[in-house]
Amino acid sequence: MKPDTGWMKSQFVAFNRRYFQTRLPLPQFRVSNARTFLGNMRWREDRIRHKYYDFKLTMSVYYDLEEKELQNVMLHEMIHYYIAYHHLKDTSPHGRVFCGIMDKLNACGWDIRISHRHSAANEASSEAPSPGRRLIGVFFVRNEIFYAVINPRYVGKIINGLSRVADFKKLEWYISIDDDFKKMPIIRSLRGYKINEERLEELKKKMTPVVLKEGMII
Prior knowledge:
alpha+beta; six-stranded mixed β-sheet; globular
């Protein structure tokens, strides 16, 4: 599939409503034959008024990609747009603020990456989660609790697996940079460590919950 401006606008409107509380004005949509990028968000700066304006979202049509890949690119650029439009300070172009939003969206089943250049090298490097950050899933089945560190690319697989488990009650997502989680294996399938409620409360002190709902970014 190759995106056109109509597709870009419809996807932007849907994602803006679902994840950003419709707080992003429509930018200009453009397509390009660029080989060096899949998506690009640019804007102008009024240094006197300390204001950004004239936002342009460009997507390349040089590569023929699956729609889900293009949607991941769109969301990547929308994170940049959200940070710039709301004048949020980040540690770098893909710093803590960017990664925090990216992790929340990936916990919904997306596969947003720091770099989405179309290359085999990027595909290989994207297997690892963001350095220092871990996505933790807590599963409630019957009267038992399980937890595991999840590879963000396999969130969809985990959710699909749980939907077929008898007596599955709920799933909670958390993010943590605590060293204890860095020592744990990063799983790609439905399995985890059994814990009790007391242990879960201890772990919660080291984790930040990911709230998955409409308008989840704010």
